[in-house]
Every structure is written in C-alpha cells, then in structure tokens.
Design brief:
Elements lengths: L4 E11 L10 E12 L4 E5 L6 H8 L7 E6 L2 E2 L5 H10 E4 L13 H11 L6 H14 L16 H13 L5 E5 L7 H18 L2 E5 L3 H7 L2 E6 L2 E7 H6 L4 H8 L6 H6 L40 E3 L2 E3 L6
Parallel strand pairs: 3-8, 3-9, 6-7, 7-8
Antiparallel strand pairs: 1-2, 1-4, 4-5, 9-10, 10-12, 11-12
Helix pairs in contact: 3-4, 3-5, 4-5
Length: 322
C-alpha cells in the first residue's frame, strides 16, 4: 500500500546571526526526519515544546521551504510543484492551527472566513452556492447555520476551533496537518474536538498528521505515533505498543509524565525523570542529542548519532538497542 505522504531525510534550518568570525549559524528546527502517513491514517507526533513539531508540519504543507530532503505527496515531490500544480496541492493538503483566534480574521464574518478558500480556488459559480456550502460545513462541525453572520469574537475557544475546522474542510482536502488543535482548549472541549476529527475522518477518508505534546490525547486518536526530540524522531511505533512498551528513554519519560486518575496506580508506576533543560537547537549536542539528559547515556552516545532501526514492531534511534 502506497503512502499518501512520505517524508525523506527532511531538514529545515533557519539562518541566524553570523558570529564574529563570519561563520553563519543555523537553528536546526527539523533535522533529518523520515516517516510515512497512509490513507485514512492518523500519525501522531509528540514531543516537548520547541522540539520542531510545528515547523515539521508547516514544512510539509509548504509554508516553509525545506533546507534538505524531500516531501512526497501522492507520489509527487512537492518541492518541484509550481503554478497550478502547487495550487492543487494546497487544496489537497490543509492545516488546522493551534490558536483559533489568531488564525481567524477578526474583521470577517464566519461565512466570509469559510468562503474565502472557495474564492481563492474558484469553487462554485455563485455566492448562493458558497453560502449553502458554508452553512452545511457549520452543521458538520456542530455549529448552527445562522452563525454564518457572526464574527469570531462572539464565539468561545472551542467554537472558534470548530470554525477553523469548517474552513479547512471547505476545499475537501485528503490530508490535514493538525498543529496542536486542542492545546488551547479546556479538557472537556478537547475531547469534543478529537471526537469531531475522528467523525470527519471516518466520513471523508482524510489522513491526519496530529501534532501535540499530550501523549495521552495522541494515543486516543492516532494509529501510529512518532516521538520527536530536538528536531529528530527518536521512536516510531503503533500507538498501543508505544504507549505500553516504549523503548527510547525519552519516550518513557514522556509517558511517565502523564497523570493517571488512580492514586494507587500512580504510586506503583515507575517514574522516569529527565534532568536539565532541552538544549538549544543552535547548539545540538554531538552524537545522540538526548544524551545530555539521558539517565542511560554511554560514551558511545557522544560519538555516534543513532539512526532509526527496527526493534520488535517499532523503530527506535538509541544505542541501547545496537
């Protein structure tokens, strides 16, 4: 089965201030990342803030240009797309942003916001058809058709995220990058948005890249999960396997930080502590980037950069499994 999305050795670096010796420095936001997403699949991406998750998502939908590597979408290298081919790709691959208030134009009504992508891509011949489609999309995401005349500030955070989802669906995409779509919402609303995304996926056969820092939420919606640290993927596996049998010390630490609403289970669960702060992506440690915080670090970790390798049913980048 061919993947709908294939990422190969992707790097996204941003140049920063030049040193006094004239050597340009680069912020390595995404550093040699490879993975695949299949049709009607949700691939979860987890990691600490600043690990490069959002930059990876934005590079995939071509908001940022990659420094190296390739992104293949339905068998086409998106780096080579121009003109109408690029416009067609942007119609197929959409993005839901983290902050629904910042991503919605406060001067536009909900109807205008949802109809704007239709105008850009020349969908529907009359304004009446666009209005009917916008009303239909509002109902799909759980809002009322008469909300079409209101402005974003008149809605709650959860409702604004539903409007963002409706706008994303306006072009009938086959792939959506969900960039932490629930992190700014209350816990009860988070569950509603996740259930809505699952319902839409089942009805429309959409593939998701679901980005979040909450591994518990990602497990609920994802078929496979990738753990990202300092720009690189350190583990990829089936969501249940990764949740119950994590291999990389970083993944174990992320899982041990998830609260469990049972004091007896929490007391009996092994806690994996990570010392120190995440290093700067301007000065990534040599060898394994996680070694400066890893309780299992060895001398080899400072010398050789581990590559993703098959261990059981998962892929892990760690010298413990050499």
């Amino acid at each position: 089965m061919e993947p709908i999305l294939k990422v190969e050795n992707l790097k996204t670096f941003f140049p920063v201030a030049t040193s006094v010796f004239g050597k340009k420095k680069y912020l390595k936001a995404v550093n040699d990342v490879s993975f695949e997403v299949f049709e009607n699949e949700t691939f979860g991406l987890v990691g600490e803030s600043g690990c490069g998750k959002s930059t990876l998502g934005r590079t995939i939908v071509k908001i940022y240009d990659p420094t190296e590597g390739k992104v293949w979408f339905k068998g086409k290298d998106i780096g080579t797309l121009k003109g109408e081919d690029l416009k067609k790709f942007r119609k197929e691959a959409q993005m839901i942003f983290q902050d629904p208030y910042a991503s919605l134009n406060a001067r536009m009504t909900v109807g205008e916001i949802i109809k704007e992508p239709m105008d850009i891509h020349g969908l529907y011949s009359s304004n009446k058809e666009k209005e009917e489609k916008a009303s239909e999309l509002l109902e799909i995401v759980g809002l009322k058709p008469d909300h079409i005349r209101r402005y974003p500030h008149e809605f709650s955070g959860g409702q604004r995220q539903r409007i963002s989802i409706a706008r994303t669906l306006a072009l009938d995409p086959s792939f959506i990058v969900c960039d932490e779509p629930i992190s700014a919402l209350d816990v009860s609303i988070q569950a509603q948005i996740i259930n809505l995304l699952e319902k839409i996926q089942a009805e429309r056969n959409i593939s998701y890249l679901f980005i979040a820092h909450d591994l518990g939420a990602v497990k609920h919606i994802s078929k496979r999960i990738g753990a990202m640290y300092l720009g690189s993927l350190v583990e990829i596996g089936d969501s249940n396997e990764l949740y119950h049998n994590p291999l990389h010390p970083y993944t174990k630490a992320l899982l041990s930080a998830i609260p469990i609403p049972d004091p007896r289970v929490m007391r009996s669960r092994e806690s994996v502590a990570i010392d120190g702060e995440i290093p700067s992506p301007l000065n990534v440690p040599s060898g394994c980037a996680f070694r400066t915080r890893c309780p299992m670090a060895m001398a080899k970790c400072a010398e050789d950069t581990p590559k993703l390798k098959k261990v059981g049913s998962s892929m892990v980048a760690c010298h413990l499994y050499d």
